Amino acid sequence: MLSLLVAILSGFALGVTAGLPVAPMAGGLFAASFFSKPAGALMAIQKEIWINDIVGNLVKANPHLNFAMNADAFVLSGKVVHIPNAGAKPATKRNRTNFPATVVLRQDSDITFVLDEYTTDPMKIENADKYEVSYDKRMSVISEQSSALNELIGDWFYYYWAPALAGQIKRTTGDAVAAHYGTGNRKKVTVADFKAMQKEFNKQNIPSEGRVASLDADMYDQLTDSMTATQYKDFSAHMNVETGVVGKLYGFTILEPRATVLRYSNASTPVAYDPEAAVANADNGAALFWHRDLVVRALGEKEFFDDEGNPQHYGDIYSALLRAGGRIKREDGKGVFALVQAAA
Could you report the per-residue pLDDT of 7-25, keeping only the tens digit for each? Predict the structure, then answer.
């Protein structure tokens, strides 16, 4: 009724001004009110929705982020993490005989690290594409922005948690196999290596509940090949697709294998490479073992940028920014190990 009233009034005004019949003008305007513009011309990008979607998909695509201490609440100004950390436990004595007891000042420390900034290259959708393609190209571009961030950030979190201390790095012990990084042969990862890793965690008095392991696709294949039929049956009984868990072995919850986890040099004390570094001939793949309370992850500032109808580019431009970072919680590195391939 409102559309009809507007059409009659507009038709009358236009008809009188232009000297045209009022009824046809009003009828034409009323009919036109039933046609909608293309969705892309009516709907502005909902930034908050897409920011939440990017963050939600980040965790979903990287299950290892669910097996870590979430420090989002400790992010300052969206860029720095500051976590108060209690000092060492007080010494205890049985049947104390010396009084007064010595008073010791507790030395608290802080866990502090700066979040890295991850950004996507701006992507343009030409104006005509919004109306000519058979699918919503804008939604496709935004999804690509999200996926690109997810993959890169997920890889970097393994690097944030990569041990650097010699005591927290162990070597594989299996038979020789062709290297999947670099050249030559490497020793396979085996069930026995997992048993040895369980021993290391026990010696460091790491709680049995909450131990996690992540392997790349090649090392995971080597591990399952070394299992007996019974071991694999027990291992796969713990599979949980929703949480990204594929099994459990010697107390370690093993996550779905990835294309890459970690890569180390072949130095006497191997050094972890960042995910974007070039591969060298002597590089070794590595699996990561950790306790979920002894690695930290945090997400900070989140932004989605849009410039719709840019007059210089004749289209819409979109990009995204997300700050993220993490670290091993303890300074002594306990509770986090790397199982690095040994040369064969």
Answer: 666 665 656 555 667 676 6
